[in-house]
Amino acid sequence: MFRPRAFFRPLDAVLALLLTGASAWGFLAFRFSEGTRALVYVGDRKYGWYELAGPRHEVIIPTAIGPVGLEIGDGAARVISSPCRNKICVRTGAVRRGHSEIVCMPAHLLIVIAGDEPGRKNGEGLDAITF
What is the CATH number of the domain that holds 52? Predict the structure, then answer.
């Protein structure tokens, strides 16, 4: 005799619980770290890096289309002036979390916020793990 198949089978619930648990673990394990310095790249070269701690100060970065003004300090970095047309980099606002970025494509400018990884203070800890 023909029996129609049920939409959910007993093992589907187990699979759904496993996927939910893995997703929750991924969100809990991935923690945002506060940034400690701003790495500035112009074109394909590293221009320099600036500490985010301390009072705010302005830095002018020379680019191919003109100078770009950055404000760095109080734990954040932001673009305050740019000669580009759309000013998307200015509208990005301040970034302060590790691995955050500000990009100005017309100026070929990239600002990456770098943070200390857990267990990596002053060069201590593991650098890489291979299997």
Answer: 2.60.320.10
